[in-house]
Structures are given as structure tokens and as C-alpha cells.
């Protein structure tokens, strides 16, 4: 049972207190009003309007094609649904890599046009000036290290990151830099659990994992994966809580059959 169940609104202060108190942080992605409302009513702590919308909502192979305007559309829909949880929005590829001024402009657009509570940005030392500039404007920033999907063509694979000592040391260094720059939390994606444990114990801010083991301060999953809307994606770190693909498939077939057989609508379903 959450010790923060009765709070009216999750904030960065509450998230920090959860880490200190040892309460795990729950986080899911959301991209639309209806699902966000259900997640918020259920008591989720953080909703991430992820650039994964490029994959699960638009059908692209990577997260790269989604635009800032499209992220703003999804984020505004999510924010209109929530009453309690903290809403974070991904800065999409191409909206911050150029320079820190461009990054700040993108973050400000998201905050002003969506009502979201903060942004998430991928990378460490290479984007630290952008992080500092955004935070200096009063925008909360969540970092993202490990497997960073916007750099997938650089990596060339979705394999586990930071398994070698040099990359692991850089990740720890980057986590410290993000904390020093003022980030309120960091997502660690697809790295060894032992490394994630070191990071969570080294920094004071919350560490949220996806494929990063159980020793971090919270977990995040993509809603389509967690609910079983996707069939093909089956990584080791994923636990499916529903099989919505099969349920929706079956319900659709039943509807089609009822229409074809003239069973729907019946006498009680017409005016």
C-alpha cells in the first residue's frame, strides 16, 4: 500500500520523498485521454508521454520520426485526463540536439502548450548544457541513460548496454552529472541490474528502470507492452498483465458475427 495514496498531486518533492522512504515509484507511458484517465484513477505515480508513440501509435520502426508538434498533441490529451499523477513528456529527436537554445525552446513549448509537469531528455555529458539551460528556466528534467532509443542507429542494436567497464563507468559519471545539473530523476534502460543498483545507491535522486532490474527506485513500462496489446515484443524484462490483443480480437470477431447474422441490434437496442 502506498504511503502517498492520499496525496492530491504527485510532485518532484513527493517523488524524492518516496526514494528516501523506500517506496517504489510506478510509471507507465500514456498517449491519449482515455487511457491516461484510467491510469490516473488507478493511482499511477508518473505518466510518461513517450516518443514511443512513434512506434505504438503511428507504426514507425523507431522513435525518430515523431515531431515536437505530435508530442505536444499527445501530451495535451494526457494532461487533460489527470488529476493526481506527475506527467513527463519526451523531447523528441531533433528538438534538442542542435544546441541548448533550441532545447530550451522545445521544452518551453511543451510546458506552455500541454500543461505537463516536466520533460525527459536522452543522454549524459553530451547534452548537459541543454539540461542546465532547461532547468534554469524552471522546467523539471528527467534524464535517460543506458539504451537511448533515439540513438539506435548509432548503437546498431537493442542489446543490453553498459556491459563493458568503460561504458559502465561513463554511465555512472553521466548519472552524477545529470544530478549535479539539477535533474529530479533518471530513467535507466536495458542495463545490468548490478550496475543499476550502483547508480541508484550513488545518486540521491530517484532512478526509474526499464529492463534495469529490481534494485532501482521505480519501474516504467510501455502501456501497449504491459497490457498485451502488442504480440511481437517479448523482452525478458516485460511482464504482461493482460492479453488485450486476444480479448479485443475476440470481441471484434463477435461484433462482426452479430452484425452479419442480423443479431445486432436486437429489439432492445433500437429506438
UniProtKB/TrEMBL annotation:
Annotated signal sequence range: none
Localisation: Cytoplasm
Transmembrane regions: none
SUPFAM superfamilies referenced in this protein's UniProt entry, alphabetically: Phosphoenolpyruvate/pyruvate domain
Record text on cofactor binding: Binds 1 Mg(2+) ion per subunit.
Requisite cofactors: Mg(2+)
Gene Ontology MF terms in the entry: 3-methyl-2-oxobutanoate hydroxymethyltransferase activity; magnesium ion binding; methyltransferase activity
Residues engaged in binding Mg(2+): 51, 90, 122
Source species, domain of life: Bacteria
Cellular compartments per GO CC: cytoplasm
The protein's Enzyme Commission number: 2.1.2.11
Catalyzed chemical reaction(s): (6R)-5,10-methylene-5,6,7,8-tetrahydrofolate + 3-methyl-2-oxobutanoate + H2O = 2-dehydropantoate + (6S)-5,6,7,8-tetrahydrofolate
The protein's annotated pathway: Cofactor biosynthesis; (R)-pantothenate biosynthesis; (R)-pantoate from 3-methyl-2-oxobutanoate: step 1/2
Keyword line: Cytoplasm, Magnesium, Metal-binding, Methyltransferase, Pantothenate biosynthesis, Transferase
Family of the protein in this entry: Belongs to the PanB family.
Binding partners and assembly: Homodecamer; pentamer of dimers.
HAMAP family: PanB
Role, per record: Catalyzes the reversible reaction in which hydroxymethyl group from 5,10-methylenetetrahydrofolate is transferred onto alpha-ketoisovalerate to form ketopantoate.
Protein name: 3-methyl-2-oxobutanoate hydroxymethyltransferase
Native source organism of the sequence: Chitinophaga ginsengisegetis
Gene coding for it: panB
